[in-house]
Structures are given as C-alpha cells and as structure tokens.
C-alpha cells in the first residue's frame, strides 16, 4: 500500500466501506443544511469531490482496497507530507443536486480526528483566483450574503452572536445569527507535482465542511502531468 506516513492510532477501529455507506444520509443532511445557511444550496455549482478523514493507516488501506473495487485511483500524490488518493467512482454519489464523481482519501497525519468518515465536499466556482484574497472577492461578488463571514478586510473570523446588528453589507442580525458557529480557513494546499494554483476557502460547522476553490480536482491532477 502506498503511504509514507508514520503517524497512526493503532488502537483505533478500522472504519469500513459499509459504515461509510450507512452514514452517507446523515452526512448529506448536514452538508445540505450548511449549504442552505451559506446561501449556496440552489446555485449552479459543481461538486468535484467528497473527502474522507481517517485516523489509522489500517483504515486508509482498507478503504483504498474497497474503493478500488468500485472505482479507480486517478491520483496518488504527496500533499503536506502525506499520501492523498483520488478515486474516480464507477457510479457517482448523489448529494442533493450534486453528482459527485470522485472521493478523496487522505492517509493519516499526526492529527487525530474526533470522528472518522465523510468530512467535506469541495465546490468549484467561476474564478481565476491564484490567492485566497482574490478568491474571497470573487466569492463575495457571486454570493453577497457571505460578507458576514468574509468581510472586505478578509479577516476570516467566525460570527459569534446575533448582537452585532447590521453588517457592512446591511445584513440584519438574524442573518448573522444563522451564520454563528461557522469557522473559516483559507489555504493553498499543493501537491508535490502540481503546477496549478488552487486557493481554497473552507466553511466548517460541527463535523462537516464545505470547501470552495477555482479549479476542479481533475484539472489539478492534469497539472501534475505538465
């Protein structure tokens, strides 16, 4: 099995493909609720892949084998020091209006996740951004409601409460309250072979996350070949 990772939790149970299948409806419901909160639910966006989180090499190896039986590995790359696989499924997963063709399976790092399994989806927007600041501007132009989370000075702080009154974009406190508890992270992850800048903005609430970036996973994989 392909992995250069030493960190793992030997005592952790191996999560199975069957457990992932059983947990999909609950994950779907959480993601759809977060999409609705972010005002992204009915937008013409592409969901290029869904990602897993595991805490042990044993779990990653078991899922690699299981997913290889229902799809094919189209990328095996090192990102931030750990192996990350992209599997293209024979039959795409359905999540709301999205048809998701690929699954991201990262091997574990030294971080231990409180819950293994489905963790986030990744959306592609119409943007040529090469950095997170530009991506923020493009995202706000398309979806102004996100100004409560992505203010013009790009300080990515979660909204704490509904007592803040009107935002700079005129959103009422009730709207701000609906966004409370959402954490934001901006990053520019890049594989060792990638040549395509793909800045990412992540919106996380509870155990699930929605990431937004300008390039789909297949474009990123293609950049590895140049």
Automatic annotation (TrEMBL):
This is VOC family protein. It comes from the Bacteria. It comes from Shewanella septentrionalis. InterPro entries: DUF991_YecM-like (IPR010393), Glyas_Bleomycin-R_OHBP_Dase (IPR029068). One of its GO terms (cellular component) is cytosol. Transmembrane segments: none annotated.
